[in-house]
Amino acid sequence: MVATWKLWLSLFSVCSLLCTAVTQLQLEPLNSAVLQGSDARFNAIVQGSWDIMTWNVGGHLVLTVRSPSEIISSENYNATFCSSGQGACVEFTIFNVSRTQAGPVVCSVQGSYIPQIAQLSVQDSGTVSITGGNVTVMKDQQVEFQCVTTGWFPIPSVSWNQNGQAVNSSLYNTTSMAEGDFFNSTSVLKIRAVSNTKVECTVTLPSLKTPQSSSVFMVIEPNYQDEMRKVRAESLNNAPEHQKGQVNLSYVPDNQIKVTPNVLQENGQNNLKTPGVNNTAGESGFMKHRHLTIV
């Protein structure tokens, strides 16, 4: 008798597992973030036989699907049958989604299926700008940049880049304030001017495929003294080599023996002949000689 009860319990457990596996409902994604005005899509996969599927948004029934092909849609909502290797697939779409539709999206299938719930987040992207525009500063000067975002929901993530490289978060501070149904933020970045730099403020939300950004340029103003030193250095480097001086043959260093000239008689005049100097006449008939005056 005990063995019989054990057998029945085992069969019941097996049946329960099989029934659960056969009647399974999956919903994806379970969390979806989209921009207001865009479309939101969810896929429901049903394993097992079924007749009716319903979709609820914000606590209201918005669409009914009858297996195998009948769809009863309503304004701004639609469903299509899709292919899946795991079972019947239904794609549910919310067109032109608004923030009033944010919250739970519930898919239910008649029978022993457990309803599945996804969360829909509807977000808004606003504007971003760095105030003041491009700046010209002195090297090593402390520079402050201010990035302002307006009309975002929820509070966006703000970050800074310098020449495409992320700035350490310890160098900037961001504050946000609600204004109606939106948030405005102000982020202040303080850096030291080292070189010419592109400064960029980046703002993003989970629903944004591409972050929004604003950028300005920081230009280092040349230092006059540094520029003068640079000009002098370049001038010296580019200067031509000094021309070599001509040898002065008549120069006699101090403490050297003076040469005593010999007197040469020419045309009745006394000319002095210096040793080591060619006194012969050239081809022109003129004699090359050097005159010395004795005081």
TrEMBL record:
Residues 115-217 form the Ig-like domain. InterPro entries: BTN3A2-like_Ig-C, Ig-like_dom, Ig-like_dom_sf, Ig-like_fold, Ig_sub. Pfam families: C2-set_3. Its main location: membrane. It is found in: Membrane. Keywords: Immunoglobulin domain, Membrane, Signal. It comes from the Eukaryota. Gene3D superfamilies: Immunoglobulins. GO terms for cellular component: membrane. Residues 1-21 form the signal peptide. The keyword Signal applies. PANTHER family: IMMUNOGLOBULIN SUPERFAMILY MEMBER 5. This is Immunoglobulin superfamily member 5-like.
